[in-house]
Amino acid sequence: MKPAADKTIPKKDDALRRRIRQGRRIFQIPENTDYYSAEGYKAAEKKFVKLCVLEGRCWN
Predict the structure, then answer these.
(1) d(CA 39, CA 46)
(2) pTM, whole model, 2 decimals?
(3) How deeply is 23 buried, as exposed, middle or buried, from its count of CB atoms within 10 A (0-12, 13-18, 19+)?
(4) CA distances from 15 to 2, 5, 18 (A)
């Protein structure tokens, strides 16, 4: 039987998923939600997360 401590070890991609969630929250401002259609919003959000959050181009 495996010890219960195995469940508390974070997965490698937890930090990445957390950064993606953070980027999506940052993108959800009225300026963006009011401007884009549903399909356009999804594409713009994906581009924002990729460029700003994952590649770090928006902040120093």
Answers:
(1) 11
(2) 0.69
(3) buried
(4) 25, 19, 5
